[in-house]
Design brief:
single chain, 291 residues, seven-stranded mixed β-sheet, three-stranded mixed β-sheet
Amino acid sequence: MSDRPIHIALTFDDNFWAPAYATMRSVCLFTHRRSDLVFHLFHRTLTVEHEEDLLAIESEFGARLEWYDLDASPLFADVAARMPLNKRLSNIVYARLMIDRLLPAGVERVLYLDCDMLVRDAIEKLVEMDMLGHPIAAVRDTMGAFITGGRDLKANRDILDPADPYFNAGLVLIDVVQWRDADILGQLEVALREGVMERIYYDQDFLNLVFKRRWLQLPWRWNTIDARHAHEGLDPAILHYTGEAKPWGIFAGMFHWVAFGRLYRHVMGNELFYRFARHRWKRWWLKKLGR
């Protein structure tokens, strides 16, 4: 059994601290190598109370948390301010584009995970796989042609050809050296200058441009997109809740709107689950009241 660190990166703001906790806890629960886990947390606006919730990962499992306050990063502030605004996810999505600049020296491979995921297999099977010389490994997005082409699949064919396999960037296994060699931020400046970023689907399309035909396609079970109840019988390794129904919805597990909804609830833990629900209701009402 290897004792090498298993590096995992997440990006989130204070409105997503509880799902980030659930994703990390699921990783820990489904591996025997808990003390090898190193979570690199790229965060914004995180309160002290919610930071303490996340620290429970260290005390329960012996994993290590490394903290990166993006609000204190001039590099992130500069890039995020000039990017097209992602209204649904906020500009924190662009943090992963500079992951090679933010990680400490010596990290050669890192697994990026979105925080709307539930892991139910040993993560080292994925992190320590042979990448066959590719800079990244990911899962093909079943909606890739529509994401890039839109109605009638006519848009942006001069940029992204629907015949090219397109990956979902919610899970990306990264060879950090090759990622750095790709000069992603340099290519981003060109894309901004030429107006490409205004036409495409944020950072996911951009990463598909950067690594076009240079990525290793993983089996679907490592990123089960829009995870529904029917997926449960197929033994998925990682559930990705990309649809409108989320497992942190109060009735998601009861009515099987999403895969493993009940399991997710107990991975997050009842106390935090209900506290997160109250947090979301408060945000909803404040938005309705224009505050």
